[in-house]
Backbone:
């Protein structure tokens, strides 16, 4: 056996603990996924392999409607959040520090600091008033609420990208007769695009996953996929929930993998 | 005869910061750059040369003073409306565009027809010998190739003046020498006025028609390479370009008297009388027999062998140290020993009085 | 500065505000602004069928700790409320400590992998981080319930004769929170360890330190900012947790988050719910301020 020598970075039991942690992190998720293929009626007993629960979930109009609603909200909210976050990132980076810049940072990151339940309660109260005053009961409230808490998630990667960008490129464009708009259109925007896509994907995932704020803001019959699942967890459980979870999980993993590859490529 | 200068800076001041902490990067600089010349701004880092270049390009606005292009005041014109282009120190090539798209960028922004953009781009690619690279992304190019793309991109819109901000500093020595020749060739071929910024005296001496030496935000001297090397106006210029010896002296009719008591002749009449500083380049000093008439008595302190020549550090009778550069003999032995007493004689016309 | 330069600076600041304005409007309307309404509501009277009646009252704030005796109209300390607060604090502290104890070796493990593997290990921690909290909580349910993975395995091994009833206890909530918030501890710890100069370990061993001494006297003091950051990131959402106690704790093992919800649902006491929300927000803000102060002080030394 080869002599391994004294490894300075090794600490007793650390590697074992870490491997156990990774197993513990993924074991419940794999169990959940495995039971989504359970043919049995109960989540408790394994009754053989089947796609039955996926078919059942697919045929369930409530699930279908909740899925469509989730997607509408996530697409709209991540679109709005990414647009305003990109503008804010352009406004708060790469210029001389100006008065109130810290206040803008605090405001943008505010959703990360306030506990979700507090924001949820605040929006419940506020939107209840607006609903009475205007009579409007639509998805607009959820889209607005989601846009707000998605802003910091969209802002961070865009800002990081902007800060890493060589200022002399825009100087060079101006030197080569590009107007401010042309510089933005032909140089800044194309270079910023990976950051914008990354920000939009994070915002999309965050919106898709939200439970607490949605639960408080939604009007009757406005369940999203997560709040529908939360409601179901109180009832008799069937592997249908596992099938829905697995679908949502798969979507998240695909988006995150894309994000991972997208942000890694720039180095 | 063309009376109008390509670029002119009039009493330009550029201060950074405010109030007491303000730093004057440019302190009342005036310079006239002639049409079609290769003009170099030379100076150590922080001397204000890049600031002056950025004022001409329009990236900065002067605190006071004005910038003229072919006689027209362009002080407040934004960079995208000045017919002046820059080759950046970092090249600043657009990473999302191909080589050809980079070169055509300026013309496209000016709204020129696609056919003209294509033709000019092709011509520029040929000029910098990068035809084969037209479709490549700039990140796939070597440093020297990136440098040539940056040059072609800045030349493509046919600017009235091309500004070059230490463009060769990122290249290795061999490539730098090649590019120096290349730059000079491009300038001659295109006839465009080049304003070149560098801290490298050799670059400045080999390429320029005229050189402006800068220090501490001020323009110290403007002249041809020979002017500046042989007739430096002050101590800074004399020491920044080449090596030199400084000797304290007092003026006498027809020459100066050194602290040792010896009198030496001057090339020109000293501009003032009394205590002055005299400069003599090391290669303008000859060793001779100490007994020879008019020779300065000196003692050899150290000998440093440089290959082509040998630097001989000597001490004069009053303790002043001077360096003489002697051509090395075939066997490399200068035939001198430490502590040896020798005579020292400046070549006629080598000694000059400089301002401190 | 010349007038032109001053105008340029002013224009730059104005553009900064103009570009940030849309984001600020959205955040004011749908995040920060409504918090002010909660402050107002906490000083109003509860409406009979939910909502509020206009009229100033401190009952909302008083109701956090005291409740009115129905018969004597006297205020007595509300034991039920105190139990909920105590559970919230206890579970949050336990969660923070446990995530640190298992998260630190994990972060260390990732940071000491060869550079080529590190991104992948980190990605494996990031996936659960971004995965739906509800799904992860439900996944834990699959493990903990009577017929779940844990009991099945333990019974197969013959370690227990009948299923352990873990679901709907504090332990289930604690395990669930540790599980869902673990990545929040590992990520900042990794960031701190990643910056740690491993040559310091060689220096410490060279100076006769044992492995434990190296850990206690060299590693932990240096990565302390990461420990503080991770602790805040775990403690703050734990304290305000809503989904995990609801799913794994059932209706009984309430935490502050569920207690707040109750006031807006069956409790029909919006002022109390508002006061509780604000109290929770204050505690969280104090924790964040301590962190910011600490982080700034550390920076000052560095």
Residues:
């Amino acid at each position: 056996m080869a002599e391994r020598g004294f490894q300075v970075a090794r600490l007793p039991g650390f590697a074992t603990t870490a491997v156990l942690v990774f197993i513990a992190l993924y074991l419940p998720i794999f169990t959940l996924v495995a039971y989504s293929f359970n043919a049995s009626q109960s989540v408790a007993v394994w009754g053989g392999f089947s796609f039955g629960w996926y078919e059942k979930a697919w045929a369930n109009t409530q699930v279908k409607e909740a899925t469509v609603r989730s997607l509408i909200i996530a697409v709209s909210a991540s679109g709005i959040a990414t647009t305003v976050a990109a503008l804010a990132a352009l406004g708060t980076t790469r210029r001389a520090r100006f008065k109130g810049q810290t206040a803008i940072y605090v405001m943008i990151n505010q959703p990360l600091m306030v506990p979700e339940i507090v924001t949820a309660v605040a929006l419940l109260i506020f939107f209840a008033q607006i609903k009475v005053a205007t009579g409007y009961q639509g998805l607009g409230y959820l889209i607005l609420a989601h846009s707000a808490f998605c802003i910091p998630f969209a802002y961070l990667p865009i800002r990081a990208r902007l800060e890493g960008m060589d200022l002399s490129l825009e100087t060079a464009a101006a030197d080569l007769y590009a107007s401010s708009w042309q510089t933005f259109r032909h140089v800044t925007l194309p270079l910023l695009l990976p950051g914008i896509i990354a920000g939009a994907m994070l915002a999309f995932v965050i919106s898709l996953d939200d439970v607490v704020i949605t639960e408080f803001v939604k009007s009757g019959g406005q369940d999203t996929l997560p709040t529908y699942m939360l409601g179901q967890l109180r009832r008799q459980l069937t592997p249908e929930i596992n099938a829905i979870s697995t679908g949502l999980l798969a979507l998240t993993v695909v988006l995150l993998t894309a994000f991972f590859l997208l942000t890694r490529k720039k180095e | 005869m063309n009376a109008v200068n390509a670029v002119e800076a009039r009493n330009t001041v550029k201060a950074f910061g405010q109030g007491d902490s303000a730093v004057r990067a440019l302190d009342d600089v005036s310079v006239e750059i002639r049409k079609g010349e290769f003009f170099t701004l030379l100076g150590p880092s922080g001397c204000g040369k890049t600031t002056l270049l950025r004022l001409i390009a329009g990236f900065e606005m002067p605190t006071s003073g004005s910038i003229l292009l072919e006689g027209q005041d362009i002080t407040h014109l934004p960079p995208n409306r000045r017919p002046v282009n820059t080759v950046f120190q970092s090249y600043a090539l657009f990473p999302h565009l191909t080589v050809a798209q980079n070169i055509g960028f300026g013309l496209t922004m000016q709204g020129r027809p696609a056919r003209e953009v294509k033709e000019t781009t092709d011509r520029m690619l040929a000029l910098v010998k990068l035809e084969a690279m037209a479709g490549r992304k700039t990140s796939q190019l070597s440093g020297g190739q990136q440098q040539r793309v940056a040059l072609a991109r800045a030349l493509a819109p046919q600017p009235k003046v091309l500004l070059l901000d230490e463009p060769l500093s990122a290249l290795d020595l061999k490539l730098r020498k090649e590019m120096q020749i290349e730059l000079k060739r491009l300038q001659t071929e295109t006839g465009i006025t080049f304003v070149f910024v560098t801290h490298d005296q050799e670059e400045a001496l080999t390429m320029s028609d005229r050189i402006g030496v800068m220090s501490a935000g001020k323009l110290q001297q403007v002249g041809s390479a020979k002017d500046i090397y042989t007739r430096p106006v002050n101590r800074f210029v004399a020491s920044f370009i080449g090596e030199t010896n400084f000797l304290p002296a007092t003026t006498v009719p027809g020459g100066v008297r050194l602290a040792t008591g010896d009198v030496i002749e001057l090339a020109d009449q000293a501009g003032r009388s009394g205590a002055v500083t005299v400069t003599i380049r090391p290669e303008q000093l000859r060793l001779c027999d100490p007994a020879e008439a008019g020779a300065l008595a000196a003692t050899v302190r150290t000998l440093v062998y440089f290959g082509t020549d040998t630097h001989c550090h000597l001490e004069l009778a009053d303790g002043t140290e001077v360096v003489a550069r002697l051509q090395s003999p075939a066997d490399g032995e200068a035939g001198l020993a430490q502590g040896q007493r020798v005579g020292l004689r400046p070549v006629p016309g080598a000694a000059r009085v400089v301002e401190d | 500065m010349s007038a032109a330069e001053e105008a340029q600076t002013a224009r730059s600041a104005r553009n900064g505000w103009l570009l940030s304005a849309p984001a600020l409007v959205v955040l004011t309307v749908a995040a920060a602004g409504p918090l002010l309404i909660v402050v107002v509501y906490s000083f109003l009277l509860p409406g009979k069928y939910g909502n509020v009646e206009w009229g100033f009252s401190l009952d909302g704030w008083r109701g956090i700790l005291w409740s009115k005796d129905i018969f004597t109209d006297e205020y007595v300390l509300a034991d039920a409320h105190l139990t909920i607060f105590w559970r919230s604090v206890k579970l949050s502290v336990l969660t923070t400590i446990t995530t640190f104890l298992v998260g630190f070796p994990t972060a260390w493990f990732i940071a000491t992998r060869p550079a080529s593997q590190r991104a992948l290990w980190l990605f494996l921690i990031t996936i659960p981080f971004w995965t739906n909290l509800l799904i992860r909580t439900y996944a834990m349910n699959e493990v903990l319930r009577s017929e779940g993975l844990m009991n099945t395995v333990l019974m197969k091994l013959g370690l227990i004769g009948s299923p352990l009833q873990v679901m709907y206890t504090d332990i289930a909530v604690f395990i669930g929170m540790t599980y869902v918030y673990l990545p929040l501890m590992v990520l900042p710890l990794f960031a701190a360890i990643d910056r740690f100069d491993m040559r310091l370990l060689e220096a410490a061993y060279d100076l006769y330190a044992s492995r434990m001494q190296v850990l206690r006297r060299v590693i932990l003091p240096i990565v302390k900012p990461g420990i503080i950051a991770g602790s805040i990131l775990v403690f703050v959402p734990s304290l305000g947790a809503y989904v995990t106690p609801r799913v794994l704790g059932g209706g009984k093992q309430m935490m502050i988050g569920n207690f707040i919800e109750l006031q807006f649902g069956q409790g029909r006491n919006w002022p109390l719910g508002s006061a509780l929300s604000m109290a929770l927000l204050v505690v969280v803000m104090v924790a964040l301020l301590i962190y910011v102060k600490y982080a700034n002080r550390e920076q000052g030394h560095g």
Summary: The longest helix of chain A spans residues 61-92.
